[in-house]
Amino acid sequence: MNSNTPLLTDLYQLTMAAGYWKCGKAEQEAVFHLFFRRLPFAGGYAVAAGLGDVVAWLQGFRFEASDLEYLATLPGRDGKPLFCQGFLDYLAQMKWQCDVDAIPEGTVVFPHEPLIRVKGPLIQAQLIETALLNIVNFQTLIATKAARVCLAAQGEPVLEFGLRRAQGPDGAVMASRAAFIGGCASTSNVLAGKIHGIPVRGTHAHSWVMSFETELEAFAAYAEAMPNNCVFLVDTYDTLDGVRHAVEIGQRLREQGHEMAGIRLDSGDLAWLSVEARRLLDAAGFPDAFIVASNDLDEHLIESLKHQEAKVNVWGVGTRLVTGGEQAALGGVYKLGAIRNAQGVWEPKIKLSEQAIKVSNPGIQQVRRYMLNGEFRGDAIYDEEAGCPEVVEIQHPVDPQRSKSIPEEASHEDLLKPVFRNGKRVMDLPTLPQIQAHCREQLTHLHPTIKRLLNPHSYTAGVERSLHERKLAMIATAKTHH
């Protein structure tokens, strides 16, 4: 399936596009922002991910002849063509020409902050909404989950091996990519390894052991076939007997000039079994053989096993990582922030709602992050047209009672960076290992209480006060005029 097509969209994007074209608004300049409203996993932060795939998708943004042929077959409710030929001809000639700014992948981010800002012809900025949300929502969710899992593992390697439980082939490859950004050391997914250069790991399954008369025979055969890749899965029958069999084959390997890498525990009481397995391995002269643990692990189970002093060195995490586990999706949205009028002046736009959290922020937004003594102190969303004042007060995006002033001595950085200008890519994309290193470094600047798995402290992220006041005035005006 080719997903690198403008048809990776909801039909209403195309019906709106046809409407913009019909009423002469297609080329009117507009600004949209992609953001989320709530942190996933009841956590204290999220990790931005997906921009690399967004860039690849946007660089291929064009309607092919077969796309337009398909759109021409779609009927309206009266049975006549939904789209007129003039509109389809317009799409055939359309060339990608938007400006895109984005927060780099691997950066820690917070609710209401634009992760991506799109400025350009209204029709183009509208047509890309669904694909951008599809890519960024999923990868940001999984990168965040991976960061939580890796923090729980306290620096020990995490192997992502969720391919068989992932949401389809595309979802599996994207999940492997995002999990690596969040800190995973490797993946079992060979295709993701090929596409993204992620280290791949894996040895054998229970079926290998079961296909032989005895476990000892199975381990011996595997050692002969793969002497440089021996991690024995020891829980097919009796786990501690499995460890003893692994030790026996490990000694034979050593005599042949090879070394057993380790064992894997995939069931049972992982804390107790890992302690007993470590004792057996050490006593037999294999102190460097690592113990891999798997079995529906997530950050909470890993943290619990750590508290129980489990002797695990490598963590295999699958289903609950690549699917997001308890969180089905990141609720990212894409909202119009401003539109340029006939006089060439930018008019800020606002979406109202009965729910305060759903009221959008107006203007052409940028995010300024403040740092003091090596620690992130707060993020202010401000309007680039108006600029950001020297002395900043950050207003909570939803709670009017909560605001915070930033110390004047704090340094700052604007997070949205240029990616496209007039449809041409201007950003040099970092490699995946560089993005992972950036994520790791970002997390060191968050106060430890913000990284707690349960009931984390809230990071200060919101709207700069003058933009907040303009927003309140626009709300008051909108309620009287609409």
From TrEMBL:
**Transmembrane recorded as keyword:** no
Pfam families for this protein: NAPRTase, NAPRTase_C, NAPRTase_N
> What keywords appear on the UniProt entry?
Glycosyltransferase, Ligase, Phosphoprotein, Pyridine nucleotide biosynthesis, Transferase
Q: Which residues form the Nicotinate/nicotinamide phosphoribosyltransferase domain?
A: 160-334
Pathway it works in: Cofactor biosynthesis; NAD(+) biosynthesis; nicotinate D-ribonucleotide from nicotinate: step 1/1
Keyword set includes Ligase = yes
Q: Which GO terms describe its biological process?
A: NAD+ biosynthetic process via the salvage pathway
Modification after translation is described as: Transiently phosphorylated on a His residue during the reaction cycle. Phosphorylation strongly increases the affinity for substrates and increases the rate of nicotinate D-ribonucleotide production. Dephosphorylation regenerates the low-affinity form of the enzyme, leading to product release.
Please state what class of enzyme this protein is.
Answer: ligase
Q: What sequence ranges are listed for the domain Nicotinate phosphoribosyltransferase C-terminal?
A: 368-469
Entry protein name? Nicotinate phosphoribosyltransferase
Organism of this sequence: Prosthecobacter debontii
